[in-house]
Amino acid sequence: MVDSIAYNDQNYVTVNAHELAHQWFGNYVTAANGDHHWLHEGFATFFALLAEKKLFGEDYYYWKLFQSAEELKALSDEGKGEALINSKASSLTYYQKGAWALHILRERIGAEAFKKAIKNYLEKYAYGNATTDEFLAEVEAASGKDMDEFKADWLTQSAFQGTAALTSLKNSEFIRKYMEIAALREVPFQNKKEMLLEALKFPVNDYIGQEVILQLADVDIAEALPLYNIALESGNLYVRQAIAMSRQDVPEALKSAFEDLLKDNSYLTKENALMNLNLTYPEEAEKWLTQTKGIIGFSNLNVRMLWLVINLVSPQVDPESTQEYFEELSAYTRSYYPFEVRQNAFGYLYQINAFTNENLKDLLQASQHHNTRFRDFSRKLLETLLQNPDYRQKYVDLKGQLSEKDRAFLDTRLPDQQ
Ligand SMILES: [Zn+2]
């Protein structure tokens, strides 16, 4: 699924650690009923986060908590917060609010008592069932602390404890610095230039560096260039990635830097640098296409498909291969490809407005796919295509070639054509 370059962009450490953690939280000890579902998901999420902290460091740990706190707070502010002891909560609550509750608990009773409580809980209820109160009883026994207030604030209350969360996050020096920089978003560049420069100093932090780059996106390039140069020279993959992603219109002064970004060990960086260079300087496509030929990218073939599409919209580059490139792109919608490949191909075919009859049939099947996200994407696209009179007519003409199932599905989308 992931090669050494893709690992930098999207690895599955968290998924693997989460599922492993279920060996204990879920399998070894199982929640007594649905009300206590967080004893599985909150715990698996939190222990995965602890595993990631070992691998990726404390800043990563706090960054993940910061991000989930933002989501939980937004939901809570809308009045849609949910209690953790609840049989009908959303994944966000079970997973992220659950992890937050355990983070706070560990902070309040200390890592040692926390570990003891978890161990005793697992041993006591091994191969059996447990409730939240039974877990809390072990926490009280191990820590000597009363858990009523914790239970009220974090487990039975629907609102998210935003203030307590913020206080906890500020234990991290990194989070305090990040917040200082993020607070500058609306400040005019001249008034924050020194602070941004300071933030880019070696060794630049991944997240703070990215935040600085985002704040440069609308700054005049002559002003921003010295900062970009420091960021580029830092060699930090994620800060450089933010540059590739935030400057869609590549300034002349950054052109050679963008060409360098094509070589970074990140498929996200490669994809965005290639796309933005070609959007800004389409007449020079050939050079960059030669440089990136043969790069596949993620399992959805992000770099390869972009490469094919740039070839298709720059027919002067390699006129003899245009047909071959189109056929390759067009074939990626077939049902034997993974859905992330198919979705990417459908998206590009839409952008270049080039659906063949086969693609139209594939889209019809995709609209009935078992993966709901892919199915919803496909239905939306199908609906859009059916508003185009040409594609609508093509679908009507295709009816005779469809399986009974696909025809019946198409009929539901073309009620006046039955
Ligand atoms: Zn899980």
Write up what this structure looks like.
The protein has 418 residues and is mostly helical. It has 24 helices and two strands. Strands 1-2 form a two-stranded parallel sheet. α3 runs antiparallel to α4 and α4 runs antiparallel to α9. The longest helix is centred in the first third of the chain and has 20 residues. The protein binds zinc ion.
Shape summary? globular
The total tally of domains equals 3
> What is the end-to-end distance?
43 Å
**Biggest beta sheet attributes:** 2 strands, parallel
- Determine the CATH superfamily of the largest domain: Neutral Protease Domain 2
> Which structural class do the helices and strands define?
mainly alpha
- Average predicted confidence as pLDDT: 96
Architecture of the largest domain, CATH level 2? Orthogonal Bundle
Task: Considering the chains and any ligands shown, give keywords for the structure.
418 residues, mainly alpha, globular, 67% helix, Neutral Protease, domain 2, two-stranded parallel ribbon, binds zinc ion
Question: Can I get a quick summary?
Answer:
By secondary structure, this protein is mostly helical.
